[in-house]
Design brief:
single chain, 340 residues, alpha/beta, Arc Repressor Mutant, subunit A, Rossmann fold, 4-stranded antiparallel beta sheet, 16 helices, 51% helix, globular, DNA-binding, Sugar-bd_dom_put
């Protein structure tokens, strides 16, 4: 495909800017629908007159509907948007970025979605969809899937769009609860993924920020002990990659520990451990659920993170396990390739 695209760029270079513009319009209508021309123009930083002209083309092709509520995408438009995605990715050189990043990190696979999640909220949806496709591919019958919490994992749950024909898939929260938003709790996300895959799920009724003493007592509970045993035997683990400073705030760590993390150049947190850029442990906290040893044993692992500010965190975590898969965005990938 790459050679064909290069030939097309030489012969009909004027087609590609138009194609990418119309794809972006179609994609954003899909994500924002129903949406008015003014809101879409503001989102894409394009004049309303241009939006009107391009939408008329898409409407005449049966890809978009326009009514008093705003613009919506048709079923045919959804198919075209999905089928165009790989071509647009190739046109923008995303495949080359994936290969370069995979070689730099030395891991088994890298998937890159265009854009920057820090600047475009819809890139988070693309990260979720890309990860969801991996889950649907890797989760065979009788697979136990572990999932962590957070906004990125919530997007992954939403990215799963159809029930699987595979049997007895079990989804479990890989860690205890963290924070106050129920939508981003691992329990909630596990239940939603199970519902979308037509699988089953387990719940872990425990916070991930308990004191060591309280946690030891809690682990004696038979139900929690049973769920923890299941968590530690997952076949597929999907987790968000977090910055050390962000996770320290979420866990409300004491000031002296936060200062220690800064002095130790901690850049990432995973499974209760804080790492520097080289992947060395600089601090450890007691956590409930999957731990670092479990992480190393899981046959299939998918780490997900986007945005330039996650570049160092991605470097740290991918140094821990070379068999893992990374799903990231163009901004983080470019940052890693150019700055590290």
């Amino acid at each position: 495909m790459k050679n064909i695209i290069n030939l097309q760029k030489k012969i009909v270079p004027e087609i590609f800017p138009i194609l990418e513009k119309r794809y972006n319009i179609l994609r954003n209508i899909y994500l924002m629908q129903p949406v008015g021309r003014r809101n879409l123009a503001n989102k894409l930083s394009i004049g309303e007159r241009i939006i009107r002209t391009e939408v008329d083309v898409l409407k005449n092709q049966g890809l978009v509907d326009v009514d008093a509520a705003g613009m919506t995408i048709t079923d045919e438009g959804k198919i075209v948007a999905e089928e165009l995605k790989d071509f647009i990715y190739s046109m923008r050189g995303i495949g080359e970025i994936q290969d370069r990043l995979k070689n730099k990190l030395g891991i088994s696979k890298v998937i890159v979605v265009p854009g920057n999640v820090e600047e475009d909220e819809f890139v988070l949806s693309d990260l979720g969809k890309a990860t969801a496709k991996l889950i649907e591919k890797l989760a065979t019958s009788n697979t136990k899937v572990g999932i962590t919490g957070g906004t990125t994992m919530a997007a992954v749950a939403k990215g799963i769009t159809q029930h699987t024909k595979k049997q007895n898939i079990n989804i479990v929260p890989a860690r205890g609860g963290l924070g106050k938003q129920v939508e981003t709790q691992a329990n909630t996300i596990a239940a939603e993924i199970a519902s979308r895959l037509n699988g089953s799920y387990e719940l872990l009724h425990a916070s991930d920020t308990l004191s060591n003493q309280t946690m030891e007592i809690l682990l004696q509970d038979r139900e929690i002990e049973r769920v923890i045993k299941t968590i530690k035997s997952v076949d597929l683990l999907v987790f968000g990659i977090g910055r050390a400073d962000t996770m320290a705030r979420r866990r409300e760590l004491q000031k002296d520990i936060v200062e220690k993390l800064a002095e130790s150049n901690a850049v990432s947190e995973a499974f209760g451990y804080y790492f520097n850029q080289e992947g060395n442990i600089v601090h450890e906290t007691k956590t409930i659920g999957i731990d670092l040893e479990d992480f190393q044993r899981v046959p299939n692992t998918i780490g997900v993170a986007g945005g330039r500010n996650k570049a160092e965190a991605i470097l740290a975590i991918t140094s821990l396990k070379k068999s893992m898969i990374l799903v990231t965005d163009e901004a983080a990938a470019t940052m890693i390739l150019e700055k590290f």
